[in-house]
Amino acid sequence: MRLFVNRVALLLSISLAAVSANTAMAKGKAAKAKHLEAAAEVVEICQRYMPNTEATKAAFRKEGYAVAEATSSHQLFKANGWNVVVQLQNGGGGNQICAIRVANMTPDQAVILAQPWVQKAKARQQNNVWDEAAAVWRGKIGPDEVAIVVYKKLKSPKIRGSAVKLDFKME
């Protein structure tokens, strides 16, 4: 029930962000509500199962996400065509990463999308962010230190827009 309530609150916040970004949406420069809803589900799955990437992958497959690309260190899952892309990665130094890209997502929408992770980690916003980041938080989930990053804009051949990343530094 708690996850359902959290999802409803998150979706309301994202909807309000979408309304406030009405001008950007009219120009086609903000994420669509259906893609943000799919991304909110991804946030919930990553929050529930990460840093266990195998359990997270199984949850994505169970929810109907398709593996789009894979290497030995990462997998890309996609939903709604290439409008919602999730990257699970075994990063260097023992990091486990769940990153979400949504087509045309604005940094403001991405900040709202990241809030469940920020709350769970009791994370504190960092002031020393780099140019590509709109916001960075650091906290802990269980015994693991985490960084939560909102990227202003990522460009790839398949999807453009902001992204959120949950990065576990494994102990």
Description:
By secondary structure, this protein is α+β, with helices and mostly antiparallel strands. It has helices at residues 2-20, 22-26, 33-49, 53-62, 107-120, and strands at residues 66-70, 74-79, 84-90, 95-102, 124-125, 133-141, 144-155, 160-169. The longest helix is centred in the N-terminal third of the chain and has 19 residues, at 2-20. Residues 8-12 and 15-26 have low confidence and may be disordered.
Defining traits:
5 helices, 38% helix, eight-stranded antiparallel sheet, alpha+beta, 171 residues
Annotate the secondary structure layout.
Blueprint: H1 2-20, H2 22-26, H3 33-49, H4 53-62, E1 66-70, E2 74-79, E3 84-90, E4 95-102, H5 107-120, E5 124-125, E6 133-141, E7 144-155, E8 160-169
Antiparallel strand pairs: 1-2, 2-3, 3-4, 4-8, 5-6, 6-7, 7-8
Helix pairs in contact: 1-3, 1-5, 3-4, 3-5
Number of helices: 5
* Quaternary form: single chain
Order of helices and strands: HHHHEEEEHEEEE
In angstroms, what separates the terminal alpha carbons? 31 Å
Q: In which order are the strands of the major sheet placed?
A: 1-2-3-4-8-7-6-5
**What's the shape?**
globular
> Total strand count, please?
8
The helicity comes to 25-40%
Radius of gyration: 15 Å
Largest sheet: 8 strands, antiparallel
